[in-house]
Amino acid sequence: MHSLSHDHIGTRIARLRRARHLTQRELSDLAHVPYSTLSKVEQGVIPASPHVVGACARAMRVEVSSIQGQPYADELRDDELDVLIRPIREALDVYDLGADPEVRPRRPEALHRESEQLCAGVRAGEIKSVASRVAGLIEEGTTSAHTVQTREGWLTLASLYRTAYDVAAKLGYPDLAQLALARLDWAAQRGSDAILGGMYHYLRALTYLREGKYRTGNRLVHLGLSTLDGAAPSRERRVVTGQLHLGAAVMAGRAHDADQAHEHLGEAEQIAAETGEAMQVYWLAFGPTNVGVHRVSVLAELDQYGEAVEVADRTRIVAGWPNSRTSHHYAEVARSLLWTGDIDRSFESLIQARKAAPQQAKYHPMVRETYAGLEAAHRRLPDSFLSYGSWLGPAAVH
Fold first, then answer.
1. Which of 77, 115, 252, 303 could cross-link to 159 by cystine, CB 3.0-4.6 Å?
2. How many domains does the chain have?
């Protein structure tokens, strides 16, 4: 029998609760989480859903990342990823200093190709490779943008800032992700791109989704849709509009507003029928596949896990779909299968999440919480289950 981690999300909630001199009943009332659910989460009997994590974080006035244990410092150090964070932060700090006389940037066309390669790398799940390159490219792109003063130069820099956001968000550095988004907005304004401005609001809304601040996230979605109204009609505008609706659907699902969630899914589905698969438009992977994947996510957020599994079984991932999105989808499916009691298939989905994008899966809180839930299930699992925990690192097993 595998042993449950001594530091899963439930133990962190309990530790923070006691530090604030709250009983389980008091936290349950403050967070509007059923007492039985909170008790079982703290014991590790059931995994904590994002809704529960967000509600407890708001009630105790702490960051969601504190409850999730992010960033996973030991694992980042072992994978030599921690040393890549500071250069990214330093590169983001020099945005307004003008051209650096010691930096000799390549031609704008070459920098644009590099920025596109980084976007593709993130979608392929190559986090370490991208993280090792993005700081230097931001410095080069910053000097180039200030030197050439063209729309294309600013938009290339905005793309590099977006990649910095992706890396920070996936590795569990929300403050750095917020900083990268602020820089993206700064560059997008100089590039006068309303569509990119709408996408900025979408990405910013996602940061509030992760923090359990759904009202603010929803306001950002509406601001993003209003921003897109200022863009000329195009397929790109429709894609970003559809993606905003998908983000809003998950937001509403996590807030347990089923009507709003399904309304946004319906809007996105109509747009996807028009655009078809648009995997490389702003690297959002929008299209019918993404609508189906988000439907699974929304149903899980609404605690309708059986329905989520049924939709997942009908959803087919199209060829060429990004590994990063595929990995996230399998993590969502694993969570739903665990809640339905299908332990074996849940672990199979965790394996699929790892296979699709191992670097991303290793630092995905949902993967770790689902693994902890499988440990708590007290069921015989294959020997590969223990090796999976060893791969996740000391924060997952002991």
1. 115
2. 2
Domain boundary among 157, 192, 227: 192
pLDDT exceeds cutoff 80 at 380:
no
Do 90 and 109 sit in the same domain of this protein? yes
Distance set, CA 17 to CA 13, 96, 346 (Å)? 6, 42, 30
Domain boundary among 192, 215, 250: 192
DSSP calls for 294-353: HHHHHHHHTT-HHHHHHHHHH--PPTT--HHHHHHHHHHHHHHHHHHT-HHHHHHHHHHH
What three-state secondary structure class fits 286? strand
Clarify whether residues 116 and 133 are in a common domain. Answer: yes
- For position 394, what pLDDT does the model report? 66
pLDDT digits (tens, 9 = 90+) for 284-319: 999 999 999 999 999 999 999 999 999 999 999 999
Provide φ and ψ at 62, rounded to 5°. Answer: -130, 165
Question: For residue 56, how many other CB atoms are within 10 A of its CB?
Answer: 27
Mean pLDDT along residues 312-332: 96
- Do 284 and 198 lie in one domain? The reply is yes
Question: Following DSSP, what letter does each residue of 28-66 receive, concatenated?
Answer: HHHHT--HHHHHHHHHTSSPPPHHHHHHHHHHHT--HHH
- Indicate the burial class of 320 (C-beta count within 10 angstroms; 0-12, 13-18, 19 or more): exposed
Tell me: do 245 and 169 sit in the same domain.
no
Nearest to 370 by CA among 291, 282, 300: 300
What domain range is 298 assigned to?
Answer: 194-321
Q: Count the neighbouring beta carbons within 10 Å of the beta carbon of residue 196.
A: 24
Tell whether 170 and 252 lie within a shared domain.
no
Q: Are residues 185 and 278 in the same domain?
A: no
